[in-house]
Amino acid sequence: MAIIIRMPKLGLEMEQGTVLEWFFEPGDEVSEGDKMAEVESEKSIGEVDAREDGTLRQIYIEEGEAVPPGKPIGILAAADADISDLEAEVEGELEGEAQEEPAAVEASTSGADAGSADTQEAASTVSSGGGSTDIKASPRAKKQAEELGVDLTTVDGTGPMDSITAEDVEAAASSSSESTESVKASPRAKKQSKELGVDLTTVDGTGPMDSITAEDVEAAAEASSAEETAEVAQTGSLRYQRATAVADPAVGSALLDTTEAVRSAFEQRVTIIDVALVVVSAALADRPLVNATYTESTHQLQEPQNIALVAESDEGQDRTVIPDVDEKSLTEVVEAREERNGDGEKTPSFTLANAADIESESLLVNQPAVAGLEIDPSGQRAVPTDDGVDLQPLVTANLTYDTRAIDSSEAEAFLNQLFERAGQASELILGSYRGKE
Q1: What is the pLDDT of residues 417-435, one digit of tens each?
Q2: Domains of the chain
């Protein structure tokens, strides 16, 4: 038996579902009940389970791409089954979706802004030169583009709704490589171009018969760096990226249950952000590269944890810097937040905010700090059960970071450590009082 795998409907108001992860690849054998994929809609996450044994024959919606509920995302069938009719049906449905609802698709696949979760994107805003363009590309394609040095704005997509796939990126890289090979350049110049990330097709050669020399490549790299520096000076902007992680249900429960427990003891004075401060403090101690500033072209680690709390007020964004958070008990953290008696003269080494308290799209990071964290504890995860659907806590975290100081691997490591510490929230709260009795 062959079946079309469809995007499940996780809620009555669901308009789009995004594939977060496929757990099998085309050609893999699947058993009935296996979790084949994880999908997301708004603030709910659900699973797509196999209804029968078979082989995952096709994947039509890659990780990061979105379609309305009920639309095909793959095909499950026996390894030797003829699925040509199903393939035609799927392609017809997806093509019809692209033609009938271009406005809805464009809305669901627009690039990230400072207030949205990256895991809900079907596409990303990719910066190129002095501006940014909305590009529909799967996460695997974006990763491939980064590894191969391919500019996504130059790639034509062949995936669903003209999205860019990893295969499109590889083809573009191959084409670019062939173009580069035809360029007249010395071996040293070609090596230099790879090291400096310079596209040889954009370099004017000054060598024999207009060939490109290593000196030409170095000059092109210096010119590009100078243009970038001038742009930063003019706009006051820096290179920032965002990393997103979703906590396991057990971790989300631990964070929320700990907050409720201490709220009872403190007569409702404690908020989720107070508990998060203690958790973040422990994670910063584990990953000190994130508790830092970037000044005078130098990544400077900061020993004190001067954490800025950011929330919206009638006057705009309200910022309170809580100094030496790692030396404070939960009670002292609560008092500092309530009385807003943080030290305004202190330079923040990190920033923390509750997503529910931030409405503007301004940059969360307080310069010269290198990172800022936005926690959203309000979501719910829909998990299918034998009796229906079980709603579990869904806690997400977005880390905005300065790429001059922190790379993506360090950002990911910090978020992993954050959730590991969040699972120990109750122990960390008790530990904050040691030596203060």
Answers
A1: 999 999 999 999 999 988 6
A2: 3-105 (2.40.50.100), 129-182 (4.10.320.10), 183-237 (4.10.320.10), 240-431 (3.30.559.10)
